[in-house]
Design the sequence.
């Protein structure tokens, strides 16, 4: 039995205001932060629209991989200082809490548990709050000249939201402490050295390399890829015993929902001798 990961194809594209979506023939859902005039700073409207977009693409069978990128010359300049901070300052505490939660709802919780592979394609400026969705995407490719920064100290706040926590997930302590405490910007090459992103490539290769990676991911069983990414995300926080049980549950779940992937894999190698799994997937 093979069960579709997402059976409900939608015909319309979600978003259209602060978030723009394109779905291409390769099964890539291109999701753009779409406030280029504001360097794609995340205001409350964008946070809500992004959640709705990701929710819709989760249930859209045309989309196998989601790429998160930015319109114009920015990936995202972080939280919107005017609309996210200044304009909510005087509001009741419950309103402020809701605005904050609507940010992390998609920037972390939605992305971390997203059933499809996600790639951050960092095409330009990436500051402060933007580090949360950056780290929450499964993989990240950056323009070598993209500028990153934990700029919070530069404008008089500590890196709140989940910025510091996200940073601690992927980069070494010395580097994290250096950049959160000094607020110095750094480029895509430095981000690659610290493993904040998987790779940094020249601007004219950014899209090509991202598509190549997305195609690789979408050629594999979606259930296997889903189990693999969620297995890694969650098991690292468990005891070894709990992790063993959880990872076998993910393993068995992938077989249950896509039993052909494993059967074909074993047959091709053991019986047909048509490929070597150690060197790549079957055609
Ligand atoms: N919040 C709100 N507005 C922002 C913003 C943010 N994080 N980042 C950029 N903008 C707005 C600017 O206010 C400006 O709006 P205006 O045209 O209405 O005046 C517009 O975007 C363009 O910004 P500008 O500074 O002129 O662009 P630039 O290309 O010269 O510089 C940045 C780009 C990203 C280096 C610069 O805008 C910046 O430092 N932004 C703040 C980054 C930051 O500290 N983010 C952390 C938030 S947690």
Sequence:
């Amino acid at each position: 039995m093979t069960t579709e990961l997402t059976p409900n194809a939608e015909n319309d594209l979600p978003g259209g205001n602060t978030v723009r979506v394109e779905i291409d023939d390769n099964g890539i859902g291109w999701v753009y932060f779409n406030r280029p005039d504001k360097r794609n700073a995340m205001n409350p409207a964008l946070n809500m629209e992004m959640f709705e977009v990701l929710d819709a693409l989760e249930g859209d069978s045309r989309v196998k991989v989601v790429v998160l990128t930015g319109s114009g010359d920015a990936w995202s300049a972080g939280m919107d200082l005017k609309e996210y901070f200044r304009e909510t300052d005087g509001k009741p505490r419950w309103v402020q809490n809701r605005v904050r939660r609507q940010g992390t709802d998609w920037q972390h919780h939605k992305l971390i548990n997203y059933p499809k592979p996600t790639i951050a394609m960092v095409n330009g400026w990436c500051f402060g709050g933007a580090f949360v969705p950056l780290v929450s995407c499964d993989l990240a490719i950056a323009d070598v000249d993209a500028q990153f920064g934990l700029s919070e100290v530069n404008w008089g706040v500590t890196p709140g939201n989940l910025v510091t926590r996200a940073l601690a997930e992927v980069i070494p302590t010395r580097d994290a402490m250096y950049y959160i405490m000094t607020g110095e910007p750094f480029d895509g090459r430095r981000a690659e050295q610290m493993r904040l992103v998987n790779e940094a490539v020249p601007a004219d290769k950014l899209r090509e390399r991202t598509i190549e990676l997305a195609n690789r991911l979408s050629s594999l069983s979606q259930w296997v890829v889903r189990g693999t990414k969620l297995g890694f995300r969650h098991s690292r926080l468990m005891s070894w015993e709990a992790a063993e049980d959880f990872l076998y549950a993910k393993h068995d779940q992938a077989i249950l929902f896509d039993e052909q992937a494993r059967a074909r894999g074993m047959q091709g190698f053991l019986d047909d001798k048509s490929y070597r799994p150690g060197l790549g997937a079957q055609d």
Summary: The CA atoms of residues 76 and 85 lie 16 Å apart. The longest helix spans residues 93-112. The mean pLDDT is 95. The radius of gyration is 20 Å.
